[in-house]
Specification:
The chain has one helix and eight strands; from the N terminus they run H-E-E-E-E-E-E-E-E. Strands 1-2-3-4-5-6-7-8 form an eight-stranded antiparallel beta barrel. Mean pLDDT is 84; it is low at 16-21. It has 139 residues and is mainly beta.
């Protein structure tokens, strides 16, 4: 009985465990190309929402809508695919609730998947209660 249990455990641990969010797309890179966040522009468009992110020289600029809200942040690289941002400037056409975005807010991101024309990164959202993902196309 002990031999069967030992064989079962050995077999169970011999399988490579995959993350929940790897290779969602058929042409994704086997190892994320995190150099894409050094310089580049990425965006997501839907009928009622536009979102654009620009990376350059350790800075990240997020643009919501048609320049309705622009957030400028500094980037600190934590590892090759992890980085932390700190908001330095917010430009908005409308009044926003103070708790949504504010100067000094820090957010940690992790690039989890890349492809030739896209990037996927995760970050904590909803006051740190959830993990959100952004799937952005390279422009």
């Amino acid at each position: 009985m002990k031999i069967k249990f030992t064989l079962f455990v050995a077999l169970l641990f011999s399988f490579a465990l995959q993350s929940q969010r790897r290779n969602d797309f058929p042409y994704s890179d086997k190892i994320p190309n995190c150099d894409m966040i050094k310089n580049g522009t990425f965006s997501r468009y839907s009928q009622d929402n536009q979102f654009k992110v620009k990376f350059s020289d350790n800075k990240m600029t997020e643009i919501y809508g048609k320049n309705t809200v622009t957030i400028e942040s500094n980037i600190k690289m934590l590892s090759k695919c992890k980085f932390k941002t700190e908001i330095k400037n917010i430009k908005t056409k409308y009044k926003m609730p103070d708790s949504l975005f504010y100067v000094g807010k820090k957010t940690e991101y992790e690039v989890v998947e890349t492809g030739k024309n896209y990037i996927i990164y995760d970050y904590r959202c909803n006051e740190g209660k959830n993990i959100c993902s952004e799937i952005l196309e390279k422009k």
